Amino acid sequence: MSHADPVEPAPRQTPTTPDKVDLKFTASESGPIQVSFEPIGTFFVLEPDESIYLRTPIGTLDSLQVVWWTGGIEVWVDHPGDHTVLDENGTELDTL
User: Per-domain residue ranges for the chain?
Assistant: First the structure.
């Protein structure tokens, strides 16, 4: 069964973002997955062992909803504009 680590806090708090945390989403070794961010509708396809991060304010963690299934992860963000999607190198991919 293919699955991804649903949510794994990453040690990526920096002095410039002490009030934010990065949540890591990783595809397993067995195949690609789609990570979608709703209600915005943005999605990314991750290849095996590839990761992306959602940088989110610590104060919004309790409002995030994460659902995962074989082949995909869906993340609902209630506060559009407060979140940033980053690649594995920390490069900004999108603002949600």
Answer: 5-89
